[in-house]
Structures are given as structure tokens and as C-alpha cells.
Amino acid sequence: MKNHLPNAVTCLNLFAGCLALCNVFAGHLETAAYLVGLAAAFDFADGLLARALHASSPIGKDLDSLADMVSFGVVPGAILYHLLGQSTAGMPTWLPYAAFIVTVFSALRLAKFNNDTRQTDSFIGLPTPACTLVVASLPLILAHDTFNLTSAILNPWVLLGLTLLLSGLLVAEIPLFALKFKNLSWTDNSLRFVFLLLAVALLLVLGAAAIPLIVLLYVLLSVVRPAFG
């Protein structure tokens, strides 16, 4: 039974992603964003369970990638497509379809991860959940826009630029640390603790608007990681 528990949680990730996709189709982007967060929680939990129960398997790895392709590949593309559709008045009619560049690069990222032996304890390129959380934060920011960001977010060139930036980061040869704690020692995990503390502070101050900044912080801290030893 214990060998199937991580896979069951992975399936919950997939199910949440499917529900998010349905809500995007229905125009309920805020609900879809919360379901993306739920999918990300399940994605984090299945890895914890697999390590705790020593239940890792090739099937589990493949299932995780297939679930991630829906929740963190198709869903962000669909959200960006919907947002671009709202913002492209007077623009080329094909422009919203460019949103699915993120989906294509998410597939490349997942295939690369599954076959890259360098990514056992860290990542090379932005993980697909982090990319998707940035995209999913946009409907939340629009729904609770206390910083007057709506006009910027719904600018088609901003959305297209974000699409290309995230797509590039997914496959970039940038080493990024993983949030995997083997112990609670400050010496061994100082970078992770600093990141989590700053992330919580940003969330408390900025709410959903903090999410893109947290992902940017994650990339920047990974770049300066040697300073933390």
C-alpha cells in the first residue's frame, strides 16, 4: 500500500489540474488559480511521501511528469491564452495562441528533467510549478488589484514578454536550488531558510502580487548561492 500512496497524491495533482483547466475554459480564472495552488501542494507532497516511504519508482517518476504536464504545462498556457484574448483588441488575431509557447517549453523542461542526471538534488532551469505559479498569480492580482497593476498585466506585449521570459527560463542552463531539507541545520540550509523567510514576508505585505517577486527572488538567490556556502 505504501508504494501506491505517492502515486495517489500525484493523481490528485492531475485531478486538480484538470479542474483548473475546466475553470479556465469557463472564464473562472481566479478559481483556476487556487486549483493550481492545490495542484502545486499535491506535487510537493508526493515527493515528500515518496522520500519518507522510500517508495520512488520509474512509474512514479513518469506519472509525476504526466500530471505536471497538465497542471503546470497546459494550464498556464490556457490562462495566458485567456488573458491575451482579453487584451488584444486591435492586435493580430493569432497573438493569443502564442501563450502556448509556455506549454511547449514546459514539455521540453519535463523531458529534460527526466533524462538529466545533474538534477537529482537541484534543478537546471525553472521548475514548471514555479513558472505556473507566476502565471496563476495574474488572475489573483487582477481580482484584488490594490497596486493598480491591471493595465500593465493586460498589456498584450507585457503578457507576450512574460510568456517568452518564462519559456526561456524553463530550459535555461541556470542551476537552481531545491527546497529539500535533509535536516534542519542552519549551516546546511541557510539559503533555503533565507528564501522561505523572505517569501513569507513578501506574501504578508504584498499578497498575490508577491508571487512573481518570490520566483524572481528564487532565481536570484540561486545565482548567488555560492555566497551561502
UniProtKB/TrEMBL annotation:
Spans through the membrane: 7-26, 94-111, 123-142, 154-179, 191-221
GO molecular function, one term: phosphotransferase activity, for other substituted phosphate groups
Keyword field: Lipid biosynthesis, Lipid metabolism, Membrane, Phospholipid biosynthesis, Phospholipid metabolism, Transferase, Transmembrane, Transmembrane helix
Database matches in Pfam families: CDP-OH_P_transf
Top-rank taxon, per record: Bacteria
InterPro entries in alphabetical order: CDP-alcohol_PTase-I (IPR050324), CDP-OH_P_trans (IPR000462), CDP-OH_PTrfase_TM_dom (IPR043130), CDP_ALCOHOL_P_TRANSF_CS (IPR048254)
Subcellular location: Membrane
Coiled-coil region list: none
Keyword NAD: no
Recorded topology in the membrane: Multi-pass membrane protein
Biological-process GO terms, alphabetical: phospholipid biosynthetic process
Record keyword Hydrolase present: no
Gene Ontology terms: cellular component: membrane
Stated family: Belongs to the CDP-alcohol phosphatidyltransferase class-I family.
Protein name (Swiss-Prot/TrEMBL): CDP-diacylglycerol--serine O-phosphatidyltransferase
